[in-house]
Amino acid sequence: MDAGQLFEQHHESLLRYLVRLTGDLDVAHDAAQETFARLVAKRPRSVNLRAWLYTVATNIVRTGANRTKRRAQLLTPERAPHGDPSA
What we know:
Number of strands: 0
Largest sheet: none
Strand content: under 5%
Structural class: mainly alpha
Radius of gyration: 19 Å
Order of helices and strands: HHH
């Protein structure tokens, strides 16, 4: 089965899953697109391509969430503890 057929077969259900996972349609679309791009770039040897697609998509979302969290932490100034005279 070629990537186009796999896209037709799995995109809608993968997108629904990602929307439930992220709560954000735009993030879900981006993650689904990246998942299928990775499929085209390096086809997995896995027999269960559906499981591979969902695993990759979940990892893409997790990586993005972790990156967003790290950026927010880096951009948020740390507050000095109460009673610290240098604050």
